[in-house]
Write a structure and sequence with these properties.
This protein is an all-alpha fold and 475 residues long. The chain has 15 helices and 4 strands. The radius of gyration is 23 Å and the shape is globular.
């Protein structure tokens, strides 16, 4: 039975109390009440780089001459936002407060989703640990990364992505607007669009995202010089020391007399030396091949369940992270947010990849900042931790993609009369024969169709009742 008011309150209070306690510790670290293990000042990105950008942006122009500025124009909104608290806090402190607010917003969205499930769902007990898995993944995942989570602006972008995914069922236009805004802040939320249901939903979400991006780009281009210079900012990037591809260079450095070295370039520590270009180019080729696979998946997918968007988003971003030339620690925040959404929507198909992401996040704090010196010098426990962390991420990416394919392309399904279907009939997620939108069973609790009408559940409404079932996961 659904949870009573008492159990519902416990389902909110417990994670909220833990969230307050852990975030107080994070704020104490970034405000330098406590010293970060390893002695590294991880807040300099905010107090020096972001603050410098703030001063430049305040003049009405983008910092185009700064090689560390490689972001879409709407990132200026995040960098300028601490100015709202000017007079109350210095720039860095204001930024940390806003990062904490974005963190709290994600928690609130996840709790809201848990509490507003279909009351007829007998499993919808907000106090059950399984039901709150996504909430706890977020509560634990952010502090697992450590104070770095509050010392970068990726929490704000992740909040937009989480909101877009959770809004998709009821409000596809809101999903598109948030995804478009997120992509104009830090590009990667555009990957969310890969998982939208073919047909009317895709047209609505994609066109709204495109319109949002065009309006923002045009507005910045008309008012602030240099808004599109970021497009050329990635061309000179090499292989960053924490990326998956960098392990080949670490191995060459550790086991041979390779003459490569690590230098600060484009705001990150990158390998420089003979043969580095081979690893860099190989990473770009692998990235292209993997995104080709994602496009193939979209063309071949037959089953579009309500949780397909979250599944595909986690798989796509994992692919981007593990094949990128750069894998900064804050990228794990993106993955924690997407994993939390998958677990909140009870996407059991991606549960194992989601927990692997959490494990990799904890290891990330050890390799940066605790043992980052080891990583830069390619030796010691830091290098071992980096190798294990990257292996976990690769495993999560492979599993997420395999499960996405199995549950949407090759997984067995039943037709409306309870028999096996060859892939041309109706699926649980409400996909029509041609892959366009439907409004049948399997919808998320509380989901409404494009016309605001709640979708029918299996066995209700006119016509013969269809048995309810769950799409095979291959597990």
């Amino acid at each position: 039975m659904p949870g009573t008011p008492g159990t519902q309150r416990r389902g909110v209070v417990a994670p909220s109390v833990v969230w307050v306690a852990t975030r107080a510790v994070l704020l104490a670290f970034v405000c330098k009440v406590f010293t970060v293990p390893g002695g590294m000042d991880i807040t300099s990105d905010v107090s020096v780089i972001y603050h410098g950008w703030f001063e430049q942006l305040s003049t009405g122009a983008f910092p185009s001459q700064d090689v560390t500025w490689q972001y879409p124009p709407a990132a200026a909104l995040v960098i300028l936002s601490p100015g709202l608290l000017a007079g109350l806090l210095d720039y860095a402190s204001a930024f940390f407060v806003l990062a904490c607010a974005a963190d709290a917003a994600v928690l609130a969205l996840l709790l809201y989703t848990v509490r507003h499930r279909n009351p007829r769902d007998a499993r919808a007990d907000p106090a059950s640990p399984r039901h709150r898995a996504g909430v706890w993944a977020w509560v634990a995942g952010v502090p697992l990364l450590g104070p770095t989570a509050y010392a970068r602006y990726d929490l704000m972008v992740t909040a937009l992505a989480v909101a877009a995914l959770l809004a998709a069922a009821r409000h596809p236009r809101m999903c598109g607007m948030l995804a478009g805004l997120g992509a104009m802040v830090k590009v990667w939320p555009v990957l969310l669009l890969l998982g939208t249901r073919r047909g009317r939903t895709t047209r609505t979400v994609w066109l709204t995202a495109l319109a949002t991006a065009v309006v923002l780009a045009a507005g910045f281009a008309a008012t602030m010089p240099g808004s599109l210079d970021f497009l050329a900012g990635q061309r000179g990037r090499g292989t960053e020391v924490e990326s998956v591809g960098s392990l080949a260079l670490h191995a060459a450095r550790y086991f041979s007399d390779w003459d490569g070295q690590v230098l600060l370039r484009y705001g990150s520590m990158e390998f420089v030396g003979s043969g580095v270009w081979l690893v860099t180019d190989a990473a770009m080729v692998v990235t292209g091949a993997c995104f080709g696979w994602l496009l193939l998946w979209r063309l071949r997918a037959r089953t579009w369940a309500p949780d397909t968007l979250a599944q595909a988003s986690l798989a796509a971003v994992l692919v981007f992270v593990v094949t990128s030339r750069v894998l900064s620690p804050q990228y794990l925040i993106w993955l924690v947010g997407l994993a939390a959404v998958c677990l909140t929507l009870r996407t059991g198909r991606q549960a194992l990849p989601a927990w692997l992401v959490l494990a990799a996040t904890g290891l990330t704090q050890l390799e940066f900042p605790v043992w980052f010196t080891d990583v830069v010098t390619s030796e010691g426990p830091g290098l071992l931790v980096l190798a294990v962390r990257n292996a976990l991420l690769v495993a999560a990416a492979v599993l997420a993609c395999a499960r996405l394919w199995r549950t949407t392309v090759t997984g067995p399904r039943k037709d409306r009369h309870g028999g096996r279907d060859d892939g041309e009939g109706q699926d649980d997620g409400g996909a029509d024969r041609d892959g366009t939108d439907g409004a049948r069973g399997g919808a998320l609790p509380g989901m409404r169709g494009p016309d605001g009408v709640p979708p029918l559940s299996p066995g209700t409404g006119p016509g013969p009742a269809a048995p309810s079932h769950t799409p095979a996961t291959g597990r």
